[in-house]
């Protein structure tokens, strides 16, 4: 098992209100799986994805990745973990406006202190993989939504991560571009990548190998899709 | 208007940080400007406040003798009466200031004061206001005296001074004077001494200035109401001078070589090199005024920067206002109004800071500057209008230019793209250009001030005590007895009496290499006794010191015996053409006026630098003199650590030792401190200016770092999600801000170099302009920048990435 979530709970406290975003989540995900998480807005999908991506910490519970309990790591160790193991694709792309597409993709490798020549090679490969090479020197604002999301996927895969997290990757795209992005994700999974995707789209969820449904901060159903 | 104030208040409460930084930045700029403007006004306003000041001229002279030119601010007292005889109705007066002992009605315990002997027409030239008495009659009697209000209070307390008697003792002459006038308080920025004004004594021997054509010791002022009068007066004065001298033997060269000059009184504060007698300089005043102006400019840039940054956060508010029908013009007026209100409050705070700064600065620098509200308030009003209008204009136009649709549709605040971010960096960089330039100059000015204080003055200044820096004509005859008693005191190693030395009234002579009278030059001639060189610790470089046992070494006034053997300083030896001290010994030189009068150089001593250290040593000849100096300065060298005991014994013996003189011995080191006080004070003023400049720049940087933290929160979230550590994020943020600071240094360095080089050129003894000052300032600026940015962005860099991403 690549990932084990044991009794994960996430509370948000403000001055007067305490909100439970995740309630006693138990989830295991094997290497090479493609998991789609579904549920209505506010059910805790993105919170779960943030915890899986270590950009948020659970209030209680353990998050085991491989052999390692990530909840016990400090901030610097988590940053190193993310660098080496994770790739992200966001609904709103989250490309940095001031950097070119090439530089945005390269960013994930810069934090690994990789030599420049190797970085360039990997960036070129990643851009080719998502057919965005011809836009390398453009800024995000000069690209369409579909192109931006493909660039974001290139950035997610350029470090050859063990896990790709996608938070509604087709949410801001039209049908055609959404289908292209799903093709790419499926291709990556076919090549062995482990993918966890949050989506509102049942048809896109059906393209995953497993579907997890959430409601009010809890997992209500976890089923394997027929291939 | 009430709506403007209430909206402004809402803005203040919503954007507390930006508003506070803006108001404080503007207030600091305003306070610096006002304070330095008051200093500049004081310094540039010397003599301008006299009624009819523009019509008052001082008669001065350039004397060219045997190839050397000397400027004389005073003239012979014989000239003015001759001119007055030719120009009926001419309003003019001579002044002869001197130190004297002033006591109440015959009391023996007087105080040393500067008194001004003047023609009765003094108050026709300088129309000072009177508290009691009037200028027309106050000096008409030969025993009348006019006091300043402060002296009247000092001597007579709360009672009226009018009709009271003051006893004035000077050079062995004692005379009682009746107070016939008390002056009203007047500004202190004048060189005319009017604490005690007395008529010129009728007896020539009692006057400070000898009535001879060759004695230039009377300040002469004339009133010339019409510009056309200047040339006719000058030609008449010159005619009187040359005609009067033509009848006198041996004065031909003197008469033809003397050029009389009429300088407007207002222009006499600074000499031709721009320096004032008290060490101030026109260059320093202009520099302070420039710093004041740039401080306001830096504050304005700071406002533009912060207001622009803040404006971007208000984009949504503006978009909504526009949707609701607000026109662009109306929005511009609204934002300009806000800027004016903000500048108004900054002006109030700036005025309060000025109130605190001016007394502090006055105590620091010694400049008796006060806030004159009749001048300061209109200036403040102008500055506030300028800041509100000029600095508020760009943010107002920017704010009003937002198109509502994209702003309302976008989830993030607009950033004006790369242009906006570059503009903000250019503005911050400009502030740091100013701060770095002033910072470098401050280091240089302070290093030069310390250098002036600490340079070797060619003598041993430690443990050297002067009984007074004034000439003690009364003690002249008693000098041998006084010296014997001083030498007998425990802890005293040597004592000496000398003249033409440290008293500001050097006797000058001209000397020349033998057979080269056309190469003559002016030297300072100091009359010294046998213990002089040991007491002052002036090292002998070659030859020997003069000796009373050798008749040709000694000059004796009473026997009209002229010394043939002379000790000179190294500068004089060089001017005479000798390579070094050793080669000058045994050689001769001639008197400039009498080539046949040869002197033999028996010794060469080290150069002694003037007390304030500003000027190169002048060529000097030392003449061993018998006891009659015609005014002496008595000095004593004490054993190291013995000074307190010597002072205690001096105090005990003072009444019989220096009868009639106030107990005021002064250490040479204190004299040096006093002489370099202006330089040190100026250094401190520069330091304050630099501190404010850097503070304003850091305020701007802090505000911008805050804005940046807000703007880049989302980006930081992305970077952290991709694995960036807190350290990497901090490096990113610091690099963004350090870059403009370092670029600013590239501009500031040449600017500061030009200024510092020009500044140092005014000093003969100056420090080397090394890269240290430049590198140090840039490192300091970079460190402050890093600290400021660090304080503002560390929270962002350490935030959970998911929180940063939610900022979208």
TrEMBL record, chain A:
Gene Ontology MF terms: ATP binding; ATP hydrolysis activity; transmembrane transporter activity
Keyword set includes Protein biosynthesis: no
SUPFAM superfamilies: P-loop containing nucleoside triphosphate hydrolases
Gene3D superfamilies according to UniProt: P-loop containing nucleotide triphosphate hydrolases (3.40.50.300)
Domain annotation ABC transporter: ranges: 3-227
Alphabetical keyword list: ATP-binding, Cell inner membrane, Cell membrane, Membrane, Nucleotide-binding, Transport
Any one GO cellular component localisation term in the record: plasma membrane
Protein name: ABC transporter ATP-binding protein
The species this protein was found in: Brytella acorum
Automatic annotation (TrEMBL), chain B:
Keywords: Cell membrane, Membrane, Transmembrane, Transmembrane helix
ABC3 transporter permease C-terminal domain location: 290-401, 689-799
Pfam family, one: MacB_PCD
Residue ranges crossing the lipid bilayer per the database entry: 20-40, 284-304, 341-367, 379-403, 423-447, 685-705, 741-760, 772-791
Chief location: membrane
Protein topology in the membrane: Multi-pass membrane protein
GO MF annotation list: transmembrane transporter activity
Signal peptide: none
Annotated compartments: Cell membrane
MacB-like periplasmic core domain boundaries: 19-205, 435-624
InterPro entries associated with the record: ABC3_permease_C (IPR003838), MacB_PCD (IPR025857), Macrolide_Exporter_MacB (IPR050250)
GO (cellular component) term, any one: plasma membrane
Protein name: ABC transporter permease
Record organism: Brytella acorum
């Amino acid at each position: 098992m690549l990932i084990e979530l044991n009794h994960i709970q996430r509370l948000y406290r403000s001055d007067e209100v305490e909100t439970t975003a995740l309630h006693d989540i138990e989830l295991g995900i094997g290497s090479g799986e493609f998991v789609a998480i579904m549920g209505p807005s506010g059910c805790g999908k993105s919170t779960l994805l943030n915890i899986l991506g270590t950009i948020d910490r659970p209030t209680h519970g353990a998050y085991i990745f491989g052999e390692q309990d990530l909840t016990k790591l400090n901030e610097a160790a988590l940053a190193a973990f993310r660098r080496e193991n994770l790739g992200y694709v966001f609904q709103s792309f989250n490309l940095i406006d001031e950097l070119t597409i090439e530089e945005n993709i390269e960013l994930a490798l810069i934090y690994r202190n990789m030599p420049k020549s190797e970085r360039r090679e990997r960036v070129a490969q990643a851009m080719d993989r998502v057919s965005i090479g011809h836009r390398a020197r453009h800024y995000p604002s000069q690209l369409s939504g579909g192109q931006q999301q493909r660039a974001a996927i290139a950035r997610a895969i350029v470090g050859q991560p063990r896990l790709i997290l996608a938070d509604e990757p087709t949410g801001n795209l039209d049908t055609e571009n959404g289908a292209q992005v799903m093709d790419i994700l499926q291709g990556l999974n076919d090549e062995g990548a482990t993918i966890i995707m949050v989506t509102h789209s049942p048809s896109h969820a059906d393209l995953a190998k497993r579907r997890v449904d959430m409601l009010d901060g809890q997992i209500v159903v976890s089923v394997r899709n027929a291939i | 208007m009430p709506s403007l104030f209430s909206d402004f208040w809402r803005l203040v409460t919503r954007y507390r940080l930006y508003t506070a930084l803006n108001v404080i930045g503007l207030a600091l700029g305003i306070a610096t400007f006002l304070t330095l403007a008051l200093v500049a006004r004081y310094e540039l306003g010397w003599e301008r406040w006299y009624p009819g000041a523009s019509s008052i001229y001082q008669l001065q002279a350039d004397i060219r003798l045997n190839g050397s030119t000397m400027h004389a601010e005073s003239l012979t007292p014989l000239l003015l009466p001759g001119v007055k005889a030719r120009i009926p109705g001419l309003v003019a007066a001579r002044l002869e200031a001197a130190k004297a002992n002033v006591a109440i009605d015959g009391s023996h315990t007087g105080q040393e004061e500067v008194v001004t002997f003047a023609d009765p027409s003094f108050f026709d030239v300088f129309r000072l206001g009177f508290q009691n008495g009037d200028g027309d009659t106050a000096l008409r009697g030969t025993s009348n005296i006019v006091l300043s209000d402060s002296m009247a209070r000092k001597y007579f307390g709360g009672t009226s001074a009018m009709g009271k008697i003051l006893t004035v003792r000077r050079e062995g002459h004692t005379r009682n004077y009746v107070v016939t006038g008390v002056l009203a308080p007047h500004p202190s920025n004048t060189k005319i001494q009017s604490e005690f004004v007395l008529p010129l004594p009728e007896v020539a021997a009692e006057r400070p200035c000898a009535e001879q054509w060759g004695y230039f010791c009377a300040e002469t002022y004339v009133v010339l109401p019409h510009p056309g009068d200047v040339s006719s007066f000058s030609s008449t004065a010159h005619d009187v001078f040359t005609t009067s001298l033509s009848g006198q033997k041996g004065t031909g060269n003197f008469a033809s070589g003397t050029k009389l000059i009429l300088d407007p009184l207002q222009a006499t504060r600074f000499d031709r090199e721009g320096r004032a007698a008290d060490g101030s300089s026109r260059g320093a005043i202009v520099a302070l005024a420039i710093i004041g102006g740039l401080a306001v400019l830096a504050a304005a840039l700071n406002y533009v920067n912060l207001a622009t940054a803040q404006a971007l956060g208000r984009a949504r508010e503006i978009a909504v206002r526009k949707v609701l029908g607000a026109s662009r013009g109306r929005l511009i007026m609204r934002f300009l109004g806000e800027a004016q209100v903000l500048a108004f409050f900054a002006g109030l705070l700036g005025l309060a800071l000025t109130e605190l700064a001016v007394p502090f600065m006055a105590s620091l620098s010694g400049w008796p500057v006060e806030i004159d509200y009749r001048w300061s308030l209109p200036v403040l009003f102008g500055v506030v209008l300028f800041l509100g209008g000029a600095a508020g204009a760009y943010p107002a136009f920017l704010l009003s230019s937002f198109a509502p649709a994209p702003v309302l549709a976008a989830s993030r605040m607009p950033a004006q793209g790369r242009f906006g971010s570059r503009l903000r960096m250019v503005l911050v960089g400009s502030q740091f250009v100013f701060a770095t330039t002033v910072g470098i100059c401050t280091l240089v000015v302070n290093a030069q001030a310390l250098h002036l204080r600490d340079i070797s003055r060619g003598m041993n200044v430690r443990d050297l005590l002067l009984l007074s820096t004034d000439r003690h004509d009364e003690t002249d005859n008693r000098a041998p007895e006084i010296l014997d008693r001083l030498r007998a005191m425990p802890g005293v190693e040597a004592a000496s009496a000398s003249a033409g030395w440290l008293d500001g009234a050097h006797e000058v002579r001209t000397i020349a290499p033998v057979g080269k009278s056309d190469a003559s030059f002016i030297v300072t001639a100091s009359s010294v006794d046998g213990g002089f060189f040991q007491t002052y610790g002036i090292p002998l470089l070659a030859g020997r010191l003069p000796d009373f046992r050798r008749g040709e070494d000694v000059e004796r006034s009473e026997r009209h015996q002229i010394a043939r053997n002379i000790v000179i300083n190294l500068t004089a030896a060089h001017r005479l053409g000798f390579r070094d001290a050793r080669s000058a010994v045994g050689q001769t030189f001639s008197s400039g006026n009498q080539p046949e009068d040869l002197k033999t150089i028996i010794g060469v001593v080290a150069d002694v630098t003037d007390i304030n250290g500003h000027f190169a040593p002048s060529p000097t000849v030392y003449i061993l003199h018998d006891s009659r100096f015609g005014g002496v300065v008595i000095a004593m060298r004490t054993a190291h650590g013995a000074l307190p005991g010597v002072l205690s014994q001096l105090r005990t013996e003072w009444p019989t030792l220096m009868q009639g003189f106030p107990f005021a011995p002064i250490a040479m080191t204190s004299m040096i401190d006093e002489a370099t006080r202006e330089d040190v004070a100026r250094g401190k003023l520069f330091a304050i200016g630099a501190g404010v400049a850097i503070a304003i720049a850091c305020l701007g940087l802090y505000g911008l770092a805050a804005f940046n933290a807000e703007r880049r929160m989302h980006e930081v979230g992305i970077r952290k999600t991709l694995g960036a550590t807190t350290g990497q994020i901090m490096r990113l943020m610091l690099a963004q801000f350090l870059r403009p600071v370092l670029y600013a240094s590239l501009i500031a360095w040449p600017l500061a170099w030009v200024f510092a080089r020009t500044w140092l050129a005014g000093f003969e003894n100056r420090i080397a302009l090394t890269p240290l000052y430049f590198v140090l300032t840039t490192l300091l600026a970079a460190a402050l920048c890093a600290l400021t940015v660090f304080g503002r962005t560390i929270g962002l860099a350490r935030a959970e990435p998911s929180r940063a991403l939610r900022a979208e």
